[in-house]
Amino acid sequence: MAFRTNFVTSIVASTLLAGTAAAENHAEMTAETVVASVNGSDITLGQLVMLRSQLPPQYQQLPDDVVFNGLVEQLVNQQLLADTLEEEPLRVEIALANERRSLRAGEVVNDLALQPISEEALQAAYDARFEGVVPEAEFNASHILVETEEEAIAIIEMLDDGADFAETAQEKSTGPSGPSGGELGWFGPGMMVPEFEAAVVELEAGAVSAPVQTQFGWHVVKLNETRTAPLPTLDDLREELATGIQQEELNALLETLAADADVTLPDQETFDFTLIQNLDLLDK
């Protein structure tokens, strides 16, 4: 959209500003208020409001007077061009029909989305989501990574003799966690390679594993602590649950409407689906 000043825009804007300056009560302005006209075709305040609401973010930040003049110019120019069209193509009629259908359906969906959702409905959706769900265990472990099994066995012997695990990891581990004492932090199922996870699951807190081989080398693993991962609360999922409830209500409404409607669908076996690519149909 070009925000430039031309003769037509200047006349239109000047006329409008003069009219609004004389008006003492702007509350009388409505969506039907005519702000400009081109060859008898009216441009209304409502049309400007709607067009502004659809502007890209960079234009939304401009001063209202700049946006106003730009929008008036755009609509005036569009009307000037539209008036030269002697015969309206079929594709325009089809596009308008699609747009009107979409906008009308959107209004129904919006009305549905604005309906309040009770706490009881949210609680029921939350309970259904987690019915039978067992909270997963999470593990806090440390490890020492070396290249060979022999090295891993030697490290286990050092630990059995009283060596400190973190200090040994800092000295011996070739993994990136070595400088931090081999600490891996908390992790849940599926976050580690299978061989490593299997070894961790078998350990008691404070215990050290036998050598564990993975694609990275040989590990000596110490399980520091386990905990049960807390389930998300209803408040954590409130927006997601509300969206799900609204979608279910919309699906139910569509099923009811379809059951009561006279709907005819194309024959799936005989219809030529490639026709939806034939743009030539829109020129007829």
What are the key terms here?
284 residues; two-stranded antiparallel ribbon; four-stranded antiparallel β-sheet; disordered N terminus; single chain; alpha+beta; 10 helices
End-to-end Cα distance, whole Å, is: 31 Å
Provide the spatial order of strands within the biggest beta sheet: 4-3-6-5
Mean pLDDT: 90
| Approximate helicity band | 40-55%
Poorly predicted tracts of residues: 1-24
Kindly provide the radius of gyration, computed on alpha-carbon positions and rounded to a whole number of angstroms: 34 Å
What is the total tally of β strands?
6
Q: Enumerate how many helices there are, as a single number.
A: 10
| Structural class designation | alpha+beta
Overall 3D shape? elongated
Quick overview of this protein structure:
The chain has 10 helices and 6 strands; from the N terminus they run H-E-E-H-H-H-H-H-E-H-H-E-H-E-E-H. With 284 residues, it is of the alpha+beta class. Helix 1 packs across helix 4 (64-82).
